[in-house]
Amino acid sequence: MSAELKRDYEIGEELGRGRFGVVHRCTSRATGEAFAVKSVDRSQLGDDLDRELAQVEPKLAQLAGAGNPGVVQVHAVYEDEAWTHTVMDLCTGPDLLEWVGLRRGEPVPEPVAAAIVAQIAQALALCHRRGVAHRDVKPEEEDDDDDEEENGGEAAPRARLADFGSAAWVGVGGLGRAEGLVGTPHYVAPEVVAGGEYGAKADVWSVGVVMYALLSGGALPFGGETPAEVLAAVMRGTLRFPPRLFDGVSHAAKDLMRRMICRYEWRRLTAEQVLAHPWIVSGGGARAV
Length: 289
Known about the structure:
CATH topology of the largest domain: Transferase(Phosphotransferase), domain 1
Low-confidence stretches: none
Radius of gyration: 19 Å
Mean pLDDT: 90
Pfam families: Pkinase
Number of strands: 11
Organism: Digitaria exilis
Distance between the termini: 53 Å
Protein name: Protein kinase domain-containing protein
Strand content: 15-25%
Oligomer: single chain
Keywords: ATP-binding, Kinase, Nucleotide-binding, Serine/threonine-protein kinase, Transferase
Strand order of the largest sheet: 1-2-3-5-4
CATH architecture of the largest domain: Orthogonal Bundle
Number of domains: 2
GO molecular function: ATP binding; protein serine/threonine kinase activity
Shape: globular
Helix content: 25-40%
């Protein structure tokens, strides 16, 4: 690790490893405050796309997170010839996937799900306005803080976007295009799988899949025995709501999912439009529109 990083922070235990790097707990020597530091050895990345992503990740994470409460904040970046170290918020709660798993198949009540989806959509709307597409939105990338909001009698966790390791610049306003096959099979949009260029609406598809998982108790709309089979199902884009999972889910919630998990990118909602949908505005039916 760089001498400058060790000068400013005491490095603690390993918290996890990802496709690009390793994350450690760290403590500021100046304030004693705890953070997380993600370290990426760029010299070990053999793929051109991986090297590009590792190089731009800290810059895009800072751009997306500045003044954006729905994004895990970056506090410092240290770079040398081979390594990039990004110091960020230490998230102490479970990620959204773990939180859903703790429910043991019980669907998330609509007011709580609406609060979570609204938080993610709000964070993405600001990212997109600033020209950043996340490109790997999934429950594992949304860290739940201990702070919770009351919705219809049950607390909704505070969800924040984390890990901009697959992010891309799509131009101010989010109207530009990106390319490259990135993301996670169950959550990736069909236009990403198809190759060629695509826009920030790929993130909206992914949030729609997260919403589907919340309301179904963890089920996913597109499955398969292998990643190739999952991607083939994504390309077909046939969205179904099995009665055994969705009988109790409102028409408004299903309407929003259809508009988010829409295989035609031009017809899919933007993050801003998701926030204006009646199901979100009504708090999942908890209040009158």
